[in-house]
Amino acid sequence: MSEQFSLLLPVWAGDRPDHLTEAFRSTVDQQSRRPDQVVIVRDGPVSAELGARLAELVASSPVPVELVELARNVGLGPALDAGLAACRHDVVARMDADDISLPHRFAVQMPIIESGFDLVGSGLLEFGTHPDDVVGTRTPPTDPDEIRVRARFADPFNHPTVVYRRDLVRAVGGYTDFALMEDYLLWAKMIVAGARVANVAEPLVRYRVGAGAYSRRGGLRQLRAELAVQRRFRRLGFTTRPQFLRNVVLRGGYRLVPERLRRLVYKRVIATYRA
């Protein structure tokens, strides 16, 4: 049976109006199967230009849009939780304000959700200065058992590509304020709760890779977040003690190596790439 679904899209002061327009148009106007509602969360004050673009997109949208305006910047996790509260439908699709969805994205993902899955992601194409400047293809595991095994070491989902059931997300506590790792922690909680998970290998989203993408994955702040999420995984019973120790050594060490080496490790070990 065909189900209605909401699109959840957060925006903050660091987003560019032109990128937001591409993201919105590609994920709403240009979809062969459009969302039935769009929830945009404005995470704190934005520039006049970005605010005007938001108003323009809301006014011209072919589907109803609810704009959730937060008085201050609260971070991605709490902003998404606020947006989930405004979603009218149990099925929710995620999108970021600087990426681009392929036109058939939801025509592919929604039938999988409707067949009984709770969380469905897809592959993505990483691009540089323009959408045709593809610099990598990130392909997630597709078999549910492989996804669950992979999740004990690395994030098995590409967050901007996921579609999930809101009620299960909220039942496990939502995203919460867990900066830098909120999505990975959420998937772990959903898997522990028995979520039926799947991925589509086909890239259904073009992911913008800006300057400093690999430098941001390292440093002490990332290391602290990594150690914190590994401790949470252990308390949840999501990982065994040997897995916890492996992750602390390998994933923690990855945060501290030079950027050039981090780029290589990410592509060959942390994420899954193909030519």
What does this structure look like?
The structure is a single chain. The chain has 275 residues and is α/β, with parallel strands linked by helices. It has 2 domains: 5-210, Spore Coat Polysaccharide Biosynthesis Protein SpsA, Chain A; 212-275. The chain is 41% helix and 21% strand. The protein has helices at 17-27, 48-60, 76-86, 105-114, 144-151, 166-171, 182-192, 220-236, 241-254, 259-270, and strands at residues 5-11, 37-43, 65-70, 91-94, 100-101, 119-127, 134-138, 163-165, 197-208, 273-274. Helix 2 (48-60) links the parallel strand 2 (37-43) and strand 3. The longest helix has 17 residues, at 220-236. It is globular, with a radius of gyration of 18 Å. The N and C termini lie far apart (37 Å).
Task: Tally the beta strands.
Answer: 10
Report the C-alpha radius of gyration, rounded: 18 Å
- Give the strand content: 15-25%
Shape: globular
So what's the CATH class of the largest domain?
Alpha Beta
How many structural domains does the protein architecture include?
A: 2
DSSP helix fraction: 40-55%
The largest sheet, given as strand count, sense and whether it forms a barrel, is:
10 strands, mixed
Q: Averaged pLDDT, please? A: 94
Order of helices and strands: EHEHEHEEHEEHEHHEHHHE
Per CATH, which architecture of the largest domain? Alpha-Beta Complex
